[in-house]
């Protein structure tokens, strides 16, 4: 059933496109505002290789940023679960940083680090890590009393075992948020590229926007949607297969 | 060697009193019982005795040995990623392997070794859980409904085995089976609701070491307990 995401995407994309065509023909909009299907097909034939390359590059950064944010959120979650001053400080700090809109912080990152891979990676991670952080902190601070009791009364509960028990017991919650944040990772990458990068699909969209070329935007959207659907399908397949094998 | 509860008083949220000056003593190692109607606070008292909860007033004197009082309940689970064998290997020293395997055999769960905990029946789960506690370092083990969902014959077999295998330890058995408690327990504390005075009454059971019993004495004993509740 995992491939249903791709089917859902096609249905959604075709529906959206149909709505645009209904608007075009009912309001008699010009091809300049909303191109015809033939214009879109012609543009696609012309720019598809470039856009494919751009979307693969963006996807690569999104996946990398996603993994980075999972590791980061997990580490902060582990430290933040402590009831000590350090734990409280880390948790409060992590929440405070997120209170600033990433888009507002992005210029600082670009000024300091330029427009290469690293700033895009950082922005991607920052955008998708907050839901992960909330889940990890929540999961790691929530005791699983009926399992942990034995280890506590026999003085054999190490911090690593405690985390393993809690992560395992809340694995469905964790996997759901990992899946959900994958979309945010792609959004983050596109936002970063749109803001300042010189490659990637976000950068291509910013050029299309400056040219007011709706065909290019629609093709970019198609490729972004398709790549996200494929990534989510692969991710869900990998994660849930792993879980089902363990239970 | 003894475990003594002196003037234990406890209330929830400083409003609803559960215990008012509860006093009792288990004066020797053996298989004892904490009995009472549902809701009188048996589990709460057990948690206080094992140090998991603090009373508002009163003291627990644990002179049962050098180790602690451990509390176990039938609500516990094993980590989901482990089979019973994996779990036992992780919580028992290697040299105890023969002991726990023998005990699994007596408890009738030797075939569960390769199973995961959530694939077992309730009775099997309780027996698997109890075994892992029996081999820990404790001087007293409080068994809160630890043999629930286990059939009567098997329960009796398990209790007799525990009594025989660990004569130097204290076991405090919480159960609603009056007959079983009278038959196998040494000292029985009957806990009553807070508006009774005294809140706890101490009686003696038949403390059998085998299945032979004088049914007249047992009936008398059972009536005594039922009247005390």
Overview of the molecule:
The complex is a heterodimer of chains A (247) and B (229). Chain A has 247 residues and is mainly α. Chain A has helices spanning 4-27, 37-80, 85-99, 102-113, 117-141, 145-153, 159-169, 171-195, 201-210, 214-246. Chain A is elongated, with a radius of gyration of 22 Å. The two termini of chain A are 19 Å apart. Chain B is α/β, with parallel strands linked by helices and 229 residues long. A six-stranded mixed beta sheet of chain B has the order 5-6-7-3-8-9, sandwiched between helices. In chain B, strands 2-1-4 form a three-stranded antiparallel beta sheet, with helices on one face. In chain B, strand 6, helix 5 and strand 7 form a beta-alpha-beta unit. In chain B, helix 6 crosses helix 7 (215-228). The two termini of chain B are 27 Å apart. Classes of the chains: A mainly alpha (247), B alpha/beta (229). Chain A binds chain B through residues 146-147, 149-150, 153-154, 156, 164-165, 168-169, 246-247, and chain B through 50, 52, 68, 70-73, 75-81, 91, 116, 118, 129, 132-133, 136-137.
Main attributes?
heterodimer; A: 247 residues; mainly alpha; B: 229 residues; alpha/beta; Rossmann fold; six-stranded mixed β-sheet; 7 helices; 9 strands
């Amino acid at each position: 059933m995992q491939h249903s995401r791709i089917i859902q995407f096609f249905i959604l994309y075709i529906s959206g496109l149909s709505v645009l065509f209904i608007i075009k023909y009912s309001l008699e909009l010009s091809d300049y505002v909303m191109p015809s299907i033939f214009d879109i097909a012609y543009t696609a034939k012309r720019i598809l290789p470039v856009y494919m390359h751009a979307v693969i590059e963006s996807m690569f950064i999104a996946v990398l940023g996603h993994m980075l944010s999972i590791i980061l959120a997990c580490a902060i979650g582990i430290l933040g679960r402590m009831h000590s001053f350090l734990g409280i400080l880390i948790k409060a700090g992590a929440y405070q940083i997120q209170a600033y809109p990433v888009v507002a912080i992005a210029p600082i990152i670009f000024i300091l680090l330029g427009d290469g891979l690293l700033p895009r990676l950082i922005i991607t991670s920052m955008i998708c890590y907050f839901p992960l952080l909330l889940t990890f902190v929540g999961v790691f601070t929530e005791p699983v009393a009926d399992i942990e009791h034995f280890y506590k009364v026999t003085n054999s509960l190490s911090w690593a075992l405690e985390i393993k028990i809690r992560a395992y017991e809340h694995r469905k919650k964790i996997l759901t948020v990992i899946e959900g944040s994958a979309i945010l990772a792609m959004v983050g990458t596109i936002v970063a590229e749109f803001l300042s990068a010189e490659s990637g699909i976000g950068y291509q969209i910013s050029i299309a926007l400056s040219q007011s070329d709706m065909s290019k935007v629609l093709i970019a959207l198609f490729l972004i949607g398709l790549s996200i659907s494929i990534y989510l399908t692969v991710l869900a397949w990998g994660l849930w297969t792993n879980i089902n094998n363990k239970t | 060697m003894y475990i003594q509860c002196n003037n234990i008083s406890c209330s929830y949220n400083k409003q609803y009193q559960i215990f008012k000056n509860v006093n009792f003593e288990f004066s020797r190692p053996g298989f004892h019982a904490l009995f009472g109607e549902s809701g009188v606070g048996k589990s709460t008292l057990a948690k206080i005795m094992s140090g998991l909860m603090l009373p508002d007033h009163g003291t627990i004197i644990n002179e049962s040995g050098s180790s602690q009082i451990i509390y176990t309940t039938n609500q516990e689970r094993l980590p989901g990623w482990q089979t019973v064998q994996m779990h036992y290997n992780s919580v028992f020293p290697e040299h105890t392997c023969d002991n726990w395997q023998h005990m699994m055999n007596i408890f009738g769960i030797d075939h569960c070794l390769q199973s995961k905990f959530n694939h077992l029946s309730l009775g099997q789960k309780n027996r698997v859980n109890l075994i892992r506690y029996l081999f820990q370092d404790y001087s007293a083990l409080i068994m809160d409904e630890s043999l629930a969902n286990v059939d009567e014959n098997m329960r009796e077999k398990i209790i007799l085995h525990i009594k025989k295998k660990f004569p130097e330890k204290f076991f405090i058995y919480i159960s609603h089976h009056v007959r079983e408690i009278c038959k196998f327990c040494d000292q029985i504390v009957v806990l009553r609701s807070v508006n009774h005075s005294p809140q706890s009454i101490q009686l003696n059971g038949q403390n059998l070491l085998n299945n032979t019993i004088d049914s007249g004495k047992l009936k008398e004993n059972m009536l005594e307990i039922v009247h005390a509740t």
